[in-house]
């Protein structure tokens, strides 16, 4: 099976702009979670989508949003970018089935730099 | 105070050494525990997960959980240069936000040939 894919891999934006990141989960997986990874805060949970519905949200401002499509692909959007949004954004794929919650597989991430 | 604490290292050991990586946590709601390995410029890779207190072995890796002390460990036997990476502990609860993982800050390990 192909792994989790994320596009683009690298992105440079300026303050005030908005950005959209994409994640394609493992085929057959229905749950996609997003995490932000920074040197200072480590990996922090952003939100999770399952069957096109946001099931859980972390402690991030409303500038961070996401959605999931019927084919389980997910996008996250960050509006009005700030310098502190520079990070590696990771998505994790999970089948969503009972008993599978421990098996979450991460993509390579999108490295966002805000200038 | 963070819910999960992990010694950031860096940790440097000679090839063949036994490596011990540790995390402590404060929230007893955490019931499932994972270890991830992350190479530079890559996403985290799931190594193993465990639920109950005790040991779980997978090849050269052993995960240990002590729920009474809220302490988890990962042991790597016969460490290899290819084990050089950042190791992240992660844990999750069983209800509500069941798929949400809470991570430690990661320990950077270097195995010297």
Task: Give a description of the structure.
The complex is a heterodimer of chains A (115) and B (113). By secondary structure, chain A is mainly beta. Helix content of chain A is 0%, strand content 52%. Chain A is built from no helices and 11 strands. Chain A is globular. The mean pLDDT of chain A is 94. With 113 residues, chain B is mainly β. Helices cover 0% and strands 53% of the residues of chain B. Chain B has strands at 4-6, 11-14, 19-25, 32-38, 45-50, 54-58, 61-66, 71-76, 85-92, 102-103, 107-112. In chain B, the strands form 2 sheets. In chain B, strands 2, 4, 5, 9, 10 and 11 form a 6-stranded mixed β-sheet that branches. In chain B, a hairpin with a 6-residue loop joins β4 and β5. In chain B, 33% of the residues are buried. The mean pLDDT of chain B is 93. The A-B interface holds A 4, 31, 33, 35, 42-45, 48, 50, 55-56, 58, 90, 92, 94, 96, 101-109 and B 32, 34, 36, 41-46, 49, 88, 90, 92, 96-106.
What is the CA-CA span between the terminal residues of chain A? Answer: 37 Å
Strand content of chain B: over 45%
Shape of chain A: globular
Number of strands of chain A: 11
Low-confidence stretches of chain A: none
Order of helices and strands of chain A: EEEEEEEEEEE
Ordered list of secondary-structure elements with their pairings:
The complex is a heterodimer of chains A (115) and B (113).
Chain A: E1 5-7, E2 10-13, E3 19-24, E4 31-38, E5 42-50, E6 53-57, E7 64-68, E8 74-78, E9 87-94, E10 105-106, E11 110-114
Parallel strand pairs in A: 2-11
Antiparallel strand pairs in A: 1-3, 3-8, 4-5, 4-9, 5-6, 7-8, 9-10, 9-11
Chain B: E1 4-6, E2 11-14, E3 19-25, E4 32-38, E5 45-50, E6 54-58, E7 61-66, E8 71-76, E9 85-92, E10 102-103, E11 107-112
Parallel strand pairs in B: 2-11
Antiparallel strand pairs in B: 1-3, 3-8, 4-5, 4-9, 6-7, 7-8, 9-10, 9-11
